């Protein structure tokens, strides 16, 4: 039940949903509890694999870490594990939809929840744009294998210099493939998808098979040509050039880039209302998917930087570049890898866009966003206006901006969100020590505090212009809260939150 006495004055920004209230909203859900730990691990793997391995690894290696990008994955994996443990505790204590947004609303208060919602726009929305740009790169490469050429001017961001294979330098106008795939998928999400969870399992199997095949065949290529290819690892950590370019500083800078690759595990927490035994299964899903994907990332990074000199990997499709180097006799394998990457990236775009619409849906239901974002289509039973708005935002971002800028902003937003999650664990332990917890962060409070500090440390490794944009974004988000959200909040008015989640035909495990 909602609070009967509405908070007044500035106390409204610290107003919190009670645990009993969110549990009540959770009990109203019509979603079926059908997901076990294996499904949840596969859900996490399904979202994690794709964006990082197929897209951002090459950028991190080429621009900042060189072959030592493997160490960057270790650093990012460690930071992510700290956040993952905090997510596991919160998801086992508050097994409800809304993910980090709901956690913040219950612990730190309404304003913190609003800021979290803004950060999740970067974590989900812009991440979908990054993956769409990577998808475009692999599609262009695969079509090129069949001698179908998209004019290169329409395969990159606005006003961006691009060097072609023959040395010609052109200026790209707009990334048309990335723009179109996002709009198509937004329309697909609007209509709704009613496939079973087995679809996700099949796509995950395809992606994992592609990655394992790349590791095995690429590893064989490396071992049979070790004297020659080992030179690509010399030096393993290139000399520091300043401003986050190589050296130990570059390894840490690259860690903030590849951190982008780990955002998938958080999607497991959005399925809290569908887990058979959330207090047991959700920590398994989060930590299990994180461990599997960390190992795969490091192996791919090792093979990739050994096969191709790191200086040549500043592309949206680094794995495609690597498999093309195998020679014409491996053309079938190269096309298979690219096709698998395209399938995998398509599913990731869907899941990320789904996650963004769900956050907007929850915020609109709470009154923090206009009600139109929670309006469900009478026929398709999906939040259709919400989905189309998200699709347009993601599409234009993918078409207009450089993948490195998009990725950096996404990483900063994600790191900030994870820091708030760690802080939420500390607050909830102090405020409600009586709550039953299916999982507890070990070494409390050391690990949550370390999670906050490590997330903040990685944030400050990014370029100054990205930090400036991030601060401006937060200022704009804060202004919108005080102009609209604060005055329309249902909790602030003492109203009961009503409405159900849209039916299960649009759940993430059904589309990834």
From TrEMBL:
<keyword id="KW-0813">Transport</keyword>
<keyword id="KW-1133">Transmembrane helix</keyword>
<dbReference type="GO" id="GO:0015171">
    <property type="term" value="F:amino acid transmembrane transporter activity"/>
</dbReference>
<protein>
    <submittedName>
        <fullName>Putative amino acid permease YhdG</fullName>
    </submittedName>
</protein>
<feature type="transmembrane region" description="Helical">
    <location>
        <begin position="466"/>
        <end position="484"/>
    </location>
</feature>
<feature type="transmembrane region" description="Helical">
    <location>
        <begin position="129"/>
        <end position="150"/>
    </location>
</feature>
<feature type="transmembrane region" description="Helical">
    <location>
        <begin position="441"/>
        <end position="460"/>
    </location>
</feature>
<feature type="transmembrane region" description="Helical">
    <location>
        <begin position="203"/>
        <end position="223"/>
    </location>
</feature>
<dbReference type="GO" id="GO:0016020">
    <property type="term" value="C:membrane"/>
</dbReference>
<feature type="transmembrane region" description="Helical">
    <location>
        <begin position="409"/>
        <end position="429"/>
    </location>
</feature>
<feature type="transmembrane region" description="Helical">
    <location>
        <begin position="68"/>
        <end position="90"/>
    </location>
</feature>
<feature type="transmembrane region" description="Helical">
    <location>
        <begin position="38"/>
        <end position="56"/>
    </location>
</feature>
<dbReference type="Pfam" id="PF13520">
    <property type="entry name" value="AA_permease_2"/>
</dbReference>
<feature type="transmembrane region" description="Helical">
    <location>
        <begin position="102"/>
        <end position="122"/>
    </location>
</feature>
<dbReference type="InterPro" id="IPR002293">
    <property type="entry name" value="AA/rel_permease1"/>
</dbReference>
<keyword id="KW-0472">Membrane</keyword>
<feature type="transmembrane region" description="Helical">
    <location>
        <begin position="284"/>
        <end position="310"/>
    </location>
</feature>
<feature type="transmembrane region" description="Helical">
    <location>
        <begin position="170"/>
        <end position="191"/>
    </location>
</feature>
<feature type="transmembrane region" description="Helical">
    <location>
        <begin position="330"/>
        <end position="355"/>
    </location>
</feature>
<feature type="transmembrane region" description="Helical">
    <location>
        <begin position="384"/>
        <end position="403"/>
    </location>
</feature>
<feature type="transmembrane region" description="Helical">
    <location>
        <begin position="251"/>
        <end position="272"/>
    </location>
</feature>
<keyword id="KW-0812">Transmembrane</keyword>
């Amino acid at each position: 039940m909602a609070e009967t006495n509405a908070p007044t004055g500035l106390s409204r920004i610290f107003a919190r949903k009670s645990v009993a209230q969110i549990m009540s909203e959770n009990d109203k859900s019509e979603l079926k509890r059908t997901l076990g730990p294996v499904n949840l691990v596969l859900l996490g793997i399904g979202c994690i694999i794709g964006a990082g391995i197929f897209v951002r690894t090459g950028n991190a290696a080429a621009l900042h870490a060189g072959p030592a990008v493997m160490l960057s994955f270790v650093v990012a994996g460690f930071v992510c594990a700290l956040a993952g443990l905090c997510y596991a505790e919160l998801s086992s204590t508050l097994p409800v939809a809304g993910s980090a947004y709901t956690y913040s609303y219950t612990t730190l208060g309404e304003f913190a929840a609003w800021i979290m919602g803004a950060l999740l726009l970067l974590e989900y929305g812009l991440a979908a744009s990054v993956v769409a740009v990577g998808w475009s790169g692999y599609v262009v490469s695969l079509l090129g294998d069949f001698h179908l050429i998209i004019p290169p001017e329409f395969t990159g961001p606005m006003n961006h210099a691009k060097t072609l294979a023959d040395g010609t330098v052109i200026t790209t106008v707009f990334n048309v493939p990335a723009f179109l795939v996002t709009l198509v998928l937004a329309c697909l999400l609007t209509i709704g998808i009613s496939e079973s969870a087995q679809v996700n399992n099949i796509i995950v199997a395809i992606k994992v098979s592609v990655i394992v095949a790349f590791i095995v065949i690429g590893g064989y290529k490396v071992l049979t040509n070790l004297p020659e290819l080992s030179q690509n690892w010399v030096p393993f950590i290139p000399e520091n050039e300043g401003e986050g370019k190589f050296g130990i500083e570059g390894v840490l800078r690259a860690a903030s880039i590849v951190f982008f690759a780990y955002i998938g595990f958080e999607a497991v927490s959005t399925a809290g209302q569908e887990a058979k035994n959330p207090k047991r299964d959700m920590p398994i899903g989060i930590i299990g998917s994180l461990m599997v994907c960390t190992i795969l990332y490091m192996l791919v990074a090792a093979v990739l930087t050994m096969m191709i000199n790191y200086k040549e990997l500043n592309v949206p499709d680094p794995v495609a570049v690597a498999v093309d180097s195998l020679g014409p006799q491996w053309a079938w394998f190269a096309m298979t890898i690219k096709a698998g990457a395209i399938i995998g990236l398509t599913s990731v775009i869907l899941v990320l866009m789904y996650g963004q619409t769900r956050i907007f849906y929850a915020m609109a239901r709470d009154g923090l966003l206009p009600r139109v974002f929670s309006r469900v289509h009478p026929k398709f039973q999906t939040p259709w206006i919400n989905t189309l708005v998200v699709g347009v935002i993601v599409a234009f971002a993918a078409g207009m901006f450089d993948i490195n800028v998009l990725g950096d902003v996404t990483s900063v937003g994600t790191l900030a969100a994870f820091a708030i999650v760690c802080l939420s664990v500390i607050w909830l332990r102090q405020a409600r020590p009586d709550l039953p917890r299916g999982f507890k962060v070990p070494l409390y409070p050391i690990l949550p505090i370390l999670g906050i500090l490590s997330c903040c440390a990685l944030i400050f490794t990014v370029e100054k212009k990205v930090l400036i944009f991030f601060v401006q974004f937060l200022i704009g988000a804060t202004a919108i809260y005080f102009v609209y959200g604060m005055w329309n909040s249902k909790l602030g008015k003492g109203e009961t939150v009503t409405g159900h989640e849209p039916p299960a035909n649009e759940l993430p495990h059904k589309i990834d």
